[in-house]
Design goal:
The structure is a homodimer of 476-residue chains. By secondary structure, chain A is of the alpha/beta class. Chain A has 18 helices and 20 strands. In chain A, the strands form 3 sheets. A 7-stranded mixed β-sheet of chain A has the order 3-4-2-1-5-6-7, sandwiched between helices. In chain A, strand 19, helix 17 and strand 20 form a beta-alpha-beta unit.
């Protein structure tokens, strides 16, 4: 499967069938190709001819130069079969059909879709789509969809999304979430290439560390399961599947024509394959963020350090609900904290240091304790106290310690911080986290992420261990 | 209970025992009193005397003028009993003890705490605390804790929080969440006044429309349940309770000395009282936002309008999981949408209009349909399409319609919008929502909020109906 998927992500030359000089899909794609330096390697096709972005437009597929690796089709649905056959005659092997109006609109569309597959088979072409927005590869700045430029910054997260709109929105959202993509594919009605094909490629992709899948329904469940199993052993795979309930199933049917099947079967299959299933969109995003920066967890005992007893209690509740445990502290750890702590402080887990000012000493003690398998930091401080520090010119690292040092002390263990409070405070804590400590928004999200890292650890111990600290190979 | 709680929220004159000229709690309170115009009505007490913020400091409680309505105590724990007895002798009836170091640190602290209660009973004083940050009343700009000024803008959300740190952080966070408080009380170890006392007051408070409670454990479960029952019939009450699991219970014990009790008993009791229990912090905040702007829902049938089939499917799944239903559309509604829609569009619920441009027409049709009891709007658009519109100088209201008109069409029904996509897009949609349509971040949050509005509707139909459109009485 490698060579053909390579033509989608790393073509030498490309074509757009349905390029347009008026706003719409066929207009935005040449624009992003120009921005990213791909217009020189592109041929634009439109029966009207003329020029688009200073480039001459050819009138038909027959006029394409030889050796085009990838064609993107965005003509109206009625013309797609004809265009596809012409592409086949030209010997083009990789085709993205972005046009909608096939199986997702019912029986008539289903028939048209089957026709496409027949044409592809006849000419030995491989298809992505229809009803999608194709691919993004941040490594070579190739995108078959118009995007925010910030979404094209190279990162380590691969995304396989069934839906074009959803995939696009996710890409728009990534920069703000502090996430950067490696490669993205939107599959749409996936009449030919599917998740399994792309999983197989992405698990070998040196730019990709974590794989995210949004799935409505698999065409071939057994095939998907096999691919997930192989991928899940080598890299963290997070899957969000809709059509989990009777109402959702009905909705996916009219969206991408997917039969999303019995949810329990999927649940068991995902668990068996060792991939992590996200309950919803925000959990999917949190898990991605945590998996990109934190190692899998070897056991289930968590150490919590906080300045808020309430949030410590919420975190304890959340960990319990996720099947995690609170770690005991070593006697030496307790002694170190007691020596520094005021009389009112209880040295427990969660350790609530309140406004005592002993956070750095406590953190040092807790992070050198061998007992915990992972840590949760909930360093919230009301504005009143933060203001006092500001007046005294006390910087946040003086209050919370040097988290790079903590990170070193807890090498090999995940650390997740919870950001809560005023905007200014949250930015300061986020700075402390840097790239090596994961930040989420609630204790519940932190608990879910740690539990997922534990499941990841259990899974990886059956195969190759993945570690986010492994450097990616240089783009070649 | 009214008159005494009135002394806490609307005192004529106040005193701070433990005022300080060096940074710390005793420093920040005079500062905020000065900002809010309360310093003129305040007496500051510190054995050292001198001046703080240009105001003369008296050396002892004995030197306080007569007629102080509320005293705030922030002296070290060891001095609290003595100070409290002196306040009793001065005839002061309302006292907030912010000092920590009582039952939450164990047996010794418990003994000291019992001593405080004895003194209070002896002099007929009523106490808030210890181990808290007291109260906030945005109506008269009174706060016994230093806060961001934006947190003091008057609103309609009352908060009863057991923990001072947590209450403070919640206040810091509110402005960014688009929430404004009416009154806040942090109860700490609540040796005297508790949730029930404040609930009774807040349910009568004309500034308060929605009541939020963060609870670790009730001293008197039966009393709390009674108060919740009375309150829940008149105003939406949202409760977040930690100590839900064995791990969390252990944590609350060492935090505020609370015995948080069997969670199932609380669950049943809350349901019986008709209050809405939030599963976690972010749900609590979302529910508050939705309850402040949306009416209770009369039935469980939801209409969904979206531009993303995937998000529509996720929303359908989420509604199913919350026990809600998808509404059928009236034949007339279907016809109106079909007349405007391109051939590929499926007129179902969720209605996914994709990039067709018929959102305003579809919305008009759906919102005049009598079938749905409430609506979810998921108007996501990839940046590519948004850019195209921007180039054509098409404004978002042209694309999504006039939501004030929609709001009128669906009068009496809740409408919740989901904000997803690029930052710019989310701001545009938030503008469309204005104050009359609630905005949340995921389809799952929207589903939870609508389900809560349904439960609220069922509850309110047993008693007085509350409607967020009822204007609050003028502050007097």
């Amino acid at each position: 499967m490698g060579p053909i998927i390579e033509k989608f992500f790393r073509p030498r030359s490309i074509a757009l069938i349905g390029a347009s000089s008026s706003p719409g899909f066929g207009y935005g794609i040449p624009q992003i190709w120009e921005k990213c330096g791909w217009l020189d390697r592109a041929t634009l096709v439109n029966p009207k001819g003329g020029t688009i972005r200073g480039k001459e437009v050819v009138r038909g597929v027959a006029d394409l130069p030889d050796g085009i690796d990838l064609a993107v089709v965005i003509v109206p649905a009625v013309h797609v079969p004809e265009v596809l056959a012409e592409l086949g005659k030209k010997g083009i092997q990789a085709v993205i059909i972005e046009t909608a109006g096939f199986a997702e609109i019912g029986e008539e569309g289903k028939g048209k879709q089957d026709e496409l597959l027949g044409i592809a088979r006849q000419y030995g072409m491989r298809l992505v789509g229809p009803n999608c927005v194709g691919i993004v590869n941040t490594e070579n700045c190739l995108s078959t969809v118009e995007l925010l430029e910030t979404s094209l910054e190279p990162g380590s997260l691969a995304i396989i999304a069934q839906s074009g709109v959803f995939g696009g929105i996710l890409l728009d959202y990534l920069p703000e979430l502090g996430l950067k993509a490696s490669k993205v594919v939107t599959l749409g009605n996936k009449i030919d290439l599917d998740e399994a094909d792309f999983l197989e490629y992405l698990v070998e992709d040196p730019q990709t560390r974590v794989i995210l899948i949004y799935e409505e329904g698999a065409r071939d469940g057994r095939r998907l399961l096999g691919a997930l199993q192989r991928a899940g052993r080598r890299k963290p795979v997070i899957i969000l599947k809709s059509g989990r309930t009777p109402l959702g199933r009905q909705a996916t049917l009219s969206h991408t024509g997917s039969l999303s099947g019995e949810d329990k079967i999927y649940d068991a299959a995902f668990r068996q394959a060792g991939v992590v299933r996200a309950a919803d969109l925000s959990e999917m995003i949190d898990l991605a963020r945590v998996f990109l920066s934190q190692p899998p967890m070897k056991g289930k005992r968590i150490g919590i350090l906080t300045t808020s007893g309430s949030l410590g209690a919420m975190a304890a509740d959340a960990l319990y609900n996720e099947g995690m445990e609170l770690s005991p502290w070593a006697p030496d750890t307790i002694q170190k904290v007691r020596n520094a702590a005021p009389g009112w402080m209880n040295v427990k887990n969660p350790l609530d240091v309140g406004p005592s000012g002993v956070f750095p000493i406590a953190a040092e003690a807790l992070f050198s304790d061998p007992n915990p398998d992972g840590y949760m930091l909930i360093p919230v401080v009301p504005h009143a106290i933060y203001e006092t520090w500001s007046r005294l010119r006390i910087e946040v690292p003086q209050i919370l310690g040097d988290w790079r040092v903590l990170r070193e002390q807890a090498a090999g263990k995940p650390v997740v911080a919870v950001l809560l409070g005023s905007k200014e405070w949250r930015s300061r804590v986020l700075e402390l986290c840097g790239n090596s400590i994961a930040a989420v928004n609630t204790p519940e999200e932190a608990a879910k992420a740690l539990a997922a890292l534990y499941r990841l650890g259990k899974n990886s111990s059956n195969g190759k261990t993945f570690n986010p600290k492994d450097p990616p190979r240089d783009p070649s």
